[in-house]
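[STRUCTURE TOKENS]
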Amino acid sequence: MGSNPLQLPDGDRRTFLKSAVAAGVLAGAAKLSSGVFAGEKSMLKLGLVGAGGRGSGAAAEALNADPDTRLYAMADAFDDRLVDSMGRLQKLHGARVDVPRERQYSGFDGYKQVIDSCDVVLLATPPHFRPQHLAYCVEKGKHVFFEKPVAVDITGVRSVIKSAQEAKAKNICFASGFCYRYDLAKRETVKRLHDGAVGDVLTMHVAFNTGPLWHRGQDPKWSDMEYQMRNWYYFTWLSGDHIVEQHVHNMDKAAWVMNGKMPVAATGLGGRQVRTEKKYGNIFDHHAVVFEYDNGIKLFSFCRQMPKCFADVSDHIVGTKGSCQLMKHMITGQTNWAYTGPEPSMYQVEHNELFAAIRAGKIVNDGESAAHSTLMAIMGRMATYTGQKVEWDWLMKKSKEDLTPPAYDMSASLPEWTRTIALPGTTKLV
């Protein structure tokens, strides 16, 4: 996303170009306290795990946030992604991208070498891998920035909640990529909502309806695993489906507006009407979900990825005294207000604040809220996949959903369930 949230060329809402622009505009924006890392510790070694467009963007933003950092090690499932990312980052940051061949790791286990050797780790792989990578970061005592969503199934969510709690005990910064919470305009808008600008919230309507995304094609030399990994967005075990990978932003904003209050149940519908070819894996192309809260509030949620359709990325909040269009930073009703303040890149702000906290010896940890927002999106997916009513307490206490494949082997053929398309009324809750 960004100033044009409908342009998603690299499988995420942030492009490398936007990161580069932000790096130039906001260089030096963070006023970091000096002397916290004295002598040999003054330079922070950054590690990047996941060298696609989002990972490259995060690395550029991290380097820009603190002048006393250098990119020290990188890992990705594929060597060609490392080479491409390295070239782009070196054009921006020159010698500060200090990743010789011996600190470039490809394959499934390279994340361990990166985490072992660095001070701050940036995680931007497909979401399936987030829980295991976060657990290893915490085990090794490393500060970490991790992209959203934080998992693709309930097993992963439970793991991330545990890691977040352990990070707090170890005084480790544990910062998520739910970037809208770092947008100054949205911060001011949500503050006013919390102060009662629209009264008591009655209902919310959120949407992430866009066009289709990238597809990286097929090569006869690729194994089944390599094909799914290179086209990870279209396989639920890797992405969580677009309701989890993309629409989760709206879930997180709704949770923010609700001061962390989670829905108690969800019902929904969805399917594959346009994106039906085999190459598109097993995710749906549209979802519609109604989330219910214990106080009677309902959240109406819609997401769609189809060409030549009306696009809408929005969040509307209706209260007893007025309404709010959160993406436009406007409130109408008894109070009429629109944001007119500064609007720096929220992607850069999140890194500025993270590195300022590290330098000041403060802790940033939004792992549990990130896990809850992710679970909210997973709950919506489970409702649309099965056609059943899904309850939050059942998910947290009884669901055994685990989308982990039998093995991480790039030469392997994956089991049929990784390609099976859900059929509402037939697919079972797990």
Notes: The first strand starts at residue 44 and ends at 49.
